[in-house]
Amino acid sequence: MYDFNYHKPGSVDEAIQLFLGAQDGVYLAGGHTLLPSMKQRLAAPTDVIDLAGIEGLSGVKSVGSDIEIGALTAHDEVANSPVVQSVIPALAELASLIGDAQVRNRGTIGGSVANSDPAADYPAGVLGLGAEIITNKRSITADDFFTAMFETALEEGELIIKIKFLRPKAAAYVKFPNPASRYATVGVFIARTGSGIRVAITGAAPSVFRSTDMEEALTRDFSVEALEGIRLDDGEMNSDLHATAEYRAHLCTVMAKRAVRKLL
Asked: Over the stretch 12-35, which tens digit does the pLDDT of each residue have?
């Protein structure tokens, strides 16, 4: 690990000013991606800005029939929140499937979403539910937020404050986990919302994405049989030592069928 300047601001404004004044600043939330990267010298920020001391960035609250989750809310808190379990139980279950107990108690929803890891679970829930990412500057729809592998629509220094989830009619998340890391080899989140069916897939491609083919098929006939014959383009899938592109394309349909069966 290279030398760096450590900061622990007391407010969002102070954090942003520290970031903008740094040569190469980075925000620290849970640190489960950042710190290992720094230890391996894959990342060498000049300044690390720890967000843990800022009040108001964590917690779950009801807003009408919807919920808002603060950016620094740990996965374990989401998984065990009575509000999330009541309003969107699929989101609570998703959070319970992330990593292990240590990861769930330190990792945060905002850090996961901002990192946009192609195999992370939260992006599937955020995109599948059509959530809104609220930053210090604006509100970004989930459809516009995830742009590429480890890339998002966030601008330089922009900070996620909270994420707003609209209550779906029903939702389910199913994943095929890597047995060591628990990351999603493929994870599928399906939601029946007021604006229609949404199918979000993580782990399969360089970034989380929606399957319009599956959405159209399930809109016509919400059944497991409706997904028969749907095969996503393996040319757009990841291929690595864990799974080939062809296998991931196959898993997308298998996991989607399981999610539909779970909903039914």
From this structure: 999 999 999 999 999 999 988 899
pTM score > 0.85 for this model?
yes
Bridge-based pairing of strands 184-193 and 196-202 is: antiparallel
Task: Give residue-wise pLDDT tens across range 112-140.
Answer: 999 999 999 999 999 999 999 999 999 99
State the burial class of residue 140 (Cβ atoms within 10 Å of its Cβ: 0-12, 13-18, 19+). buried
Number of Cα atoms under 13 Å in the Cβ half of residue 90: 28
CB-based contacts of 161: which residues, under 8 Å, 6+ apart? 12, 57, 70, 71, 134, 135, 136
Helices and strands in the chain: count of H runs, count of E runs: 11, 14
The pair of three-digit structure tokens given for residue 71, joined into one six-digit string: 């950016």
9 and 53 Cβ atoms separated by less than 8 Å: yes
Q: 233: buried, middle or exposed (CB in 10 Å: 19+, 13-18, 0-12)?
A: exposed
Q: Which CATH superfamily is domain 170-263 in?
A: CO dehydrogenase flavoprotein, C-terminal domain (3.30.390.50)
Domain residue spans of the chain = 5-50, 60-165, 170-263
Indicate the CATH number for domain 60-165.
3.30.465.10
Fold observed for domain 5-50: 3.30.43
